[in-house]
Structure formats: C-alpha cells, structure tokens
Amino acid sequence: VMVAYLMLVAFVFIMINFLVDLTYFALDPRLRKGRTG
Question: Taking a C-beta distance cutoff of 8 angstroms, is the pair 5, 12 a contact?
Fold first, then answer.
C-alpha cells in the first residue's frame, strides 16, 4: 500500500510540475529562452 501511495504522490507531483510549466510557457513564451536546463 505504501509503495502505491508513493507512486501516486510522485505522479501527481510530476503532473503539477508539467502543468505549471505549460502555464508559464503559455503566459510568457520569453521565459523559456532565459531558462537553462
């Protein structure tokens, strides 16, 4: 049960980061040019 919980939390965390990244890119495309990595 603990492993499934950790996997779920990790999945949600990745999805949130992905959505935030898309939101920033949509709001200000210039931001991606200045970012490294």
Answer: no
